[in-house]
Here is the input.
Amino acid sequence: MKENRVLMQYFEWYLRPEDKLWQQVSREAENLKKIGITDVWLPPAYKAAGGRYDAGYATYDLYDLGEFNQKGSIETKYGTKDEYIQAISNLHENGIGVYADIVLNHKIGADEAEFVYANEEEAQDRNKDKAPFEKIKAWTKYNFLARKNKYSDFKWNHNHFNGTDWDESGRKNGIFRFYGKNWDQNVDQENGNYDYLMGADIDFNNPEVVNELKKWGKWYLDFTGVDGFRLDAVKHIKSLFMADWIKCMNEVKPIQCVGEYWNRDLETLKWYIYQTNSTIPLFDVPLHYNLYEASNSNGNYDLSKILDNTLVKQYPELAVTFVDNHDTEPGQALFSWIQDWFKPLAYALTLLRKDGLPCVFYGDYYGIPSHNINPINETLEKLLELRRDKAYGEQIDYFDDYNIVAWVRTGDDMHPKSGLVTIMSDGPGGGKKINVGTRLANSVFYDYTGNIQETVYVDQEGNGIFYCNSGSVSVWVKK
Here is the structure.
């Protein structure tokens, strides 16, 4: 197990095909190792409905990793199959694990439409029929003619789906459930049943589908050599299927994974963890929203409660903490962008504490030029260095004030120069008396961030008064 693992989400929504992401990954692999990244989450690598202009979530052909002339291009938005395999290889050469982003919930961009009987459902309550069964023309036939059965001869048709959102014959949008099909159970209960999300909704009760997706997963692990998966939209996928699929993949080789269950309600996430037998770590969405609200509260947020009702507090071993991602960027459906002034505080809360696997966002490290968002790479590199070199040992919390919170990492013998004090304020700033323990006692500390120039003396009992500026974070380490 790598020490103090850090995952980086290596993409943002507005990347362009000419950015050639896979080539960039190969060039940057050595630098990522240098700054302390241990694992990288790469975007969907297979052909999506929009070809080279598609971010990858409108899944078309899971077997086309930028190899076949489908949807108007050979390459995907990020490059070719060979470039993808090379990027993974370069990351592995630098000791970095790779998570592949996969979308199993739906398919979009069918090759042919076919007639099928379907009910139209109420949009806000998918358990209620809006109209009786009638014949619609649904885009559900996936033949992948250009691939010519390479890797798999499986062809998709309406029997493999529960429903769709478009009737070609009536040129009508809606939520249509196919005759003889039911929405999957053990999914999120929003809208009565949130199985249906978009496109042609995959039926995880169909044995042919289950067998094909397991076969594909094994092929993908073997063909690409990735170390695990980021599982998209798991709230819409039958939880029992997902747990069984992960178990099946682990039989090929031990894998890492993280599920995206976008719900800020902790009880709902705990329900999913229970349903999947604690086999799928989840992104800590409740923590993200706590950070978002704190960043928008003009200093009126109670920082002592910022970790309340979060996954990292209740299930630290199953929490992947993050500040922002491709869905929370400006212009996206889940827009909830953390304000610039609060970003260093938010990253300190995820990177310098002992619990959870922190995830750094590409858009924060490299910026988002399309929206004039500047990178905070210097801040991130300092915090990553601190995580790699200093953030070890027992953790002692001082979450006892509305505006100023702090914690100590006492260091350990395996990392002789380790140990730190993190202190932050969303308000006026100030100081806090802190005991750093005997290992760090009788020492002079300085602020590694450079935000405060003065030093702090810690007495023989380990007591010192540590400071931070207004709306800022300081990380104190032994001089």
Summary: The CA atoms of residues 410 and 419 lie 5 Å apart. The chain has three domains: 7-104+208-389, 107-206, 395-478. The first strand starts at residue 7 and ends at 9.
